[in-house]
Design goal:
Keywords: Endoplasmic reticulum, Glycosyltransferase, Membrane, Transferase, Transmembrane, Transmembrane helix
Helix content: 25-40%
Number of strands: 13
Protein name: Alpha-1,3/1,6-mannosyltransferase ALG2
Largest sheet: 7 strands, parallel
Distance between the termini: 30 Å
Strand order of the largest sheet: 3-2-1-4-5-6-7
Strand content: 15-25%
CATH class of the largest domain: Alpha Beta
Order of helices and strands: EHEEHEHEHEHEEHEHEHEHEHEHHH
Number of domains: 2
Pathway: Protein modification; protein glycosylation
Organism: Amblyomma americanum
Main location: endoplasmic reticulum
Length: about 400
């Protein structure tokens, strides 16, 4: 089903006003989830409004720009960091500011508020009269923080304590996978009484039927040689993109392969800029500069073209919370090569819809070689992946389960 179309009669008698509160409305998996949730509720007849602290017209999903969804940006003048540090504190302050705006200075008067990523705003959102507050946990922030010294521990202690307490203030808590649910229980022992509901993100099953737009040449990819593989991830170090480059170097010793490394790139994000340069440099050092093509922030039509063209998708993050990319690949009938940990162990069936590997260049290279040599195997995995996506991650299922968990009675 087209995300942007109403379901024609599936609406409910009681139409609700829904507000979504999100930190930075960019083009990542968390943003795609929130946009899809907004479209899903809108398709049921509810009015939906998104409140965010940052919305860059050049770095966002089209539905947030073309009028499909109403978006209000507040607090963009607040800093994202202080002297290159204190990112968590600044994120908390920005979301609290957005919550204060919504509760006391806007005329939105929501019946339901859905927020994600930063739970510090939940207690304030609870002050919105008669509104049910739903918090979607992509992954506990305290588990994402890198260990540090005494000053880091002093800085993180109140933030981590606030995260646990404020998360428990929500009327409902959703998680994106069973894996995240298990980590949630470990991270927040005082919230053992809080029920968790798993709501898998969705991906567009109709993408495979849409006509393709553009060419590889228009993306700067000129006649790649060998089996074509695609890495689709933001240019962040935690995504372990260097693993894909090292795997390509090893695989290319046995079979001709070419890797397209595409993903979200924000020129205002220091890590994106630095890591892009690091990866380009590493490709040259490994001697695979001619076997790797880099693409910044591909548009949705460009992503479909890349997914349609590749032999398989290479997904390198280890311990990923969910990972929408493998699901997008399966929707497009493409095999997936991913790490044998985290969300991909729930989405990808090893040997059936893809190959799950240890997070080493050797293991990934072996998987690439296997699929490069056996096109029919990759095609069979892609077909089975499509069937799995239709069963677990369809748009209709997402709409139904989201609506049920948001509006069901206590």
């Amino acid at each position: 089903m087209d995300r942007n179309k109403d379901d024609g009669g599936g609406g409910d008698a009681a139409v609700s006003r829904v507000c979504m509160v999100h930190l930075d409305l960019g083009v990542g998996g968390a943003e795609r989830l929130m946009v899809d949730a907004a479209l899903a509720l809108r398709s049921r007849g509810h009015t939906v409004h998104i409140v965010t602290t940052h919305h860059d017209p050049k770095h966002c999903f089209p539905e947030t720009l073309d009028g499909t969804l109403k978006v209000t940006t507040v607090g963009d003048w607040l800093p994202r960091s202080i002297l290159g540090r204190l990112y968590a504190l600044c994120s908390y302050l920005r979301m609290v500011f957005a919550a204060i705006y919504l509760v006391w200075f806007s005329d939105l008067q929501p019946d339901v508020i859905i927020c994600d990523q930063v739970s510090a705003c939940v207690p304030i959102l609870r002050m919105c009269r008669n509104a049910r507050v739903v918090f979607y946990c992509h992954f506990p922030d305290l588990m994402l923080s890198k260990p540090g010294g005494l000053l880091k521990r002093i800085y993180r202690w109140p933030i981590d304590a606030l995260e646990q307490w404020s998360t428990g203030c929500a009327h409902r808590v959703l998680v994106n996978s069973r894996f995240t649910g298990e980590v949630f229980r470990q991270a927040f022992p005082r919230l053992s009484h809080v029920p968790l509901r798993v709501l898998y993100p969705t991906a567009s099953l109709s993408s495979v039927e849409r006509p393709l737009e553009g060419t590889l040449e228009e993306l700067g990819i000129d006649k790649p040689q060998g089996a074509l593989f695609l890495s689709l991830n933001r240019f962040e170090r935690k995504k372990s993109l260097a693993l894909a480059l090292k795997a390509v170097e090893l695989a290319s010793r046995e079979v001709p392969v070419h890797l397209i490394m595409a993903g979200g790139y924000d020129p205002e994000c220091r890590e994106n800029v630095e890591h892009w340069d690091e990866l380009v440099s590493l490709a040259e050092q490994l001697g695979v500069g001619q076997r790797v093509s880099f693409v910044r922030s591909p548009s949705e039509p460009a992503k479909r073209l890349l997914l349609h063209t590749c032999r398989a998708v290479v997904y390198t993050p280890a311990g990923e919370h969910f990972g929408i990319v493998p699901v997008e690949a399966m929707c497009m009938r493409r095999a997936v090569v991913a790490c044998d940990s985290g969300g991909p162990t729930e989405t990808v069936l090893h040997g059936e819809t893809g190959l799950l590997c240890a997070p080493t260049p050797e293991a990934f290279a072996a998987a690439l070689v296997r699929l490069a040599r056996d096109r029919s195997l990759a095609q069979e995995m892609g077909e089975r992946g499509r069937e799995r996506a239709e069963t677990l991650f369809s748009w209709d299922r997402f709409v139904r389960e989201l609506h049920q968990v948001v509006f069901e009675e206590e």
